[in-house]
Specification:
Layout lengths: L2 H20 L4 H25 L9 H14 L3 H14 L31 H9 L5 H12 L4 H10 L5 H31 L3 H20 L5 H20 L5 H13 L3 H13 L4 H14 L3 H9 L10 H8 L2
Helix pairs in contact: 1-2, 2-3, 2-4, 3-4, 5-6, 6-8, 7-8, 8-9, 9-10, 10-11, 11-12, 12-13, 13-14
Amino acid sequence: MSSVKLLIYGLICQQFALMAIFVPQPVWRQALIFLIAHALASGLFALLLTSVFPKRFNQEKSGLLTLFFCFAFFVPLFGAVAILITMVYFRKFKYLGERDEFSTVPLLPFMQEATAMSAGMGEGGAWSRLRATALPRAERLMALMAVGSGSGFNTSSFLQLATGDNDDEIRLLAFNLCERHEQKINHSITAAMEGLKTASDPSERAVFCRTLAFSYWELVYNALSQNELRGFFIEQSFKYLRQVQELGGDDPALSVLLGKIHLIRHEHDQAGEAIRDALAKGASPSLVIPYLAELAFLKRDFASLKSYLAQDPTLRLKPGIGPVAQFWRR
């Protein structure tokens, strides 16, 4: 039914509803005729307004239809007038002028490095090849191997997503790479545990505890732990780190790890103390300054954030943190 017919039938039904109120007749008949005619008019007006919505709202049309019907039915006359005004706005005035504020959008600083092709196959390029099922299997396998050769949260996430691939070879290789990486860390933990049981010299025990602290953290960092085990691994890393410190081990790497643990536990003050301690012990500024900047951002201390990023001019040249440093130094 065309919009014009819907409008005409809706106005006729609404007129019948109004006439039912003023024509002398029994009250029950007035109420019945009014409700029927008004309900028909409300339904037609709701259909009229819903029909002018873009096609992307097709899946939501039933909800829109219900909303407009209720609006027109429970707000007699004024609801129908409001629906007609809304329809006219959408059909006529909505598209008369161009919205200049959205005509041009500058490229964000965080996206600029993605516009240039890298010399090798990065995570983004490898994952785009993995998702392209039309590519030859050999090229997709090479992309998966490129992802598997790295480490970190993104790499583990990519491998876990690849385990759901439709290609059996890619899925099995992804499972194998995930398992191999996890087995390597678990073997390191097992060997350190066995060595810790027999070690008696404090310096030797400190070496094994250090291995355990960093190995457990690697399970967390590489997202190789389930949600229920993640907290346990964090606590184990913290436990063995404290044992290293009690046995006399004290170096910048341990302080950085302590800061990361406090940061992931949302203990921001302790994380800041540990990171600044690592910097005082000689840790590379390019390694610890991003964490200090992150802590300043979490505290909404933007002045300190800019100050931290300005301490190391080389940060703006590094991938990942580079666009962030350039943005905040402007």
